[in-house]
């Protein structure tokens, strides 16, 4: 849970004391604790992209049923669409759960949104500062600026060195920009900005691959990034649409901790809604849809090795 920003004002407590408190806050940040535990334990857990209340309820129920950690992922759309209400609902659900659940803002690509999100009381545990649509130098400079801003409010941070192709609902499509794979050297430049989590580009992409045979992951590259950044940041996985279980498991074996899932947990729900909307009651649609999402989240918890780790 993010701590109130007033606690981190250097004008109030002085620079040295503020740095000490900031370190304490990040060490006790729920997202940091969960991801470090996964890295140490050699397992992953889902970061569930959440657009509606059905997914929120299904995610919490799955975590409780499987005794597994999980993170609720919201895109900036959730802030603008719901005027922050979906964020508050997710944060309340995380606080009331009997297992570790954190709330993460994924792909915050607008600086005004980052500032707004970081100042939502008891809102986000972590924020992805995604400046990958800028050139490398500007990306690094903006990332460093907002890492400091978020850390001063007890919020952990994530960044994406390189650039993954494609887009998803709620994320700016970078299809017009050239995809760039992460190198160990570039990863270390982002580590120097102070980020807590790193989302490397190693052949993964946002959106759909079209077929399993089109998934071309450079695991040797991932290993080199992992070795270069070991002990300084934890690795998180993006771009998992179309991943079969064995590819997801391989990514966890190669050091991925939180693994973002989007279509993998709603494809059955989407099919059910398409086939039954207008034929059954809205409450039935929501209830049955929630069950289908929960089933998919539980499966991913098993695949990633998260089951029983809470």
- Gyration radius, in Å: 19 Å
Give the spatial strand order of the biggest sheet. Answer: 1-2-3-4-5-6-7-8
Helix content: 40-55%
SSE order, one letter for each helix or strand: HHHEHEHHEHEHEHEHEHEHH
What does this structure look like?
This is Ketose-bisphosphate aldolase. It comes from Lipomyces orientalis. The chain is α/β, with parallel strands linked by helices. It has helices at 10-13, 15-27, 30-41, 53-66, 76-82, 85-96, 111-118, 136-151, 184-191, 219-229, 245-253, 263-276, 282-304; strands at residues 45-49, 70-74, 101-108, 126-129, 156-159, 197-198, 234-237, 256-261. It has an eight-stranded parallel barrel with strand order 1-2-3-4-5-6-7-8, surrounded by ten helices. The relative contact order is 0.16. Helix content is 49%, strand content 12%. The two termini are 17 Å apart. Helix 12 runs antiparallel to helix 13. The chain is built from 13 helices and eight strands. The longest helix has 23 residues, at 282-304.
């Amino acid at each position: 849970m993010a701590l109130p920003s007033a606690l981190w004002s250097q004008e109030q407590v002085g620079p040295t004391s503020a740095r000490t408190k900031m370190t304490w806050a990040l060490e006790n940040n729920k997202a940091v604790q969960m991801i470090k535990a996964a890295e140490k334990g050699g397992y992953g857990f889902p970061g569930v992209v959440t657009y509606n209340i059905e997914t929120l309820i299904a995610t919490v129920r799955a975590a409780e049923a499987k005794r597994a950690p999980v993170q609720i992922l919201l895109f900036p759309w959730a802030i603008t669409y719901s005027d922050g209400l979906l964020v508050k609902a997710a944060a309340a659900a995380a606080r009331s759960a009997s297992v570790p659940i954190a709330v993460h803002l994924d792909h915050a690509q607008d600086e005004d949104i980052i500032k707004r999100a970081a100042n939502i009381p008891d809102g986000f545990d972590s924020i992805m500062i995604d400046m990958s649509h800028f050139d490398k130098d500007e990306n690094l400079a903006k990332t460093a600026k907002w890492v400091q801003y978020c850390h001063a409010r007890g919020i952990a941070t994530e960044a994406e060195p390189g650039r993954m192709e494609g887009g998803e609902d709620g994320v700016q499509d970078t299809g017009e920009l050239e995809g760039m794979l992460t190198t160990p050297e570039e990863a270390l430049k982002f580590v120097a900005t102070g980020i807590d989590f790193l989302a490397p580009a190693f052949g993964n992409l946002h959106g759909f691959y079209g077929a399993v045979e089109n998934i071309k992951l450079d695991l040797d590259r991932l290993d080199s990034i992992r070795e270069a950044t070991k002990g300084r940041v934890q690795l998180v996985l993006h771009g998992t649409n179309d991943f079969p279980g064995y590819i997801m498991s391989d990514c966890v074996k190669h050091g991925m901790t939180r693994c973002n899932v989007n279509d993998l947990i709603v494809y059955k729900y989407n099919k059910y809604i398409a086939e039954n909307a207008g034929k059954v009651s809205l409450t039935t649609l929501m209830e049955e849809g929630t069950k289908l999402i929960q089933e998919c989240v539980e499966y991913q918890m098993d695949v990633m090795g998260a089951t029983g780790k809470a």
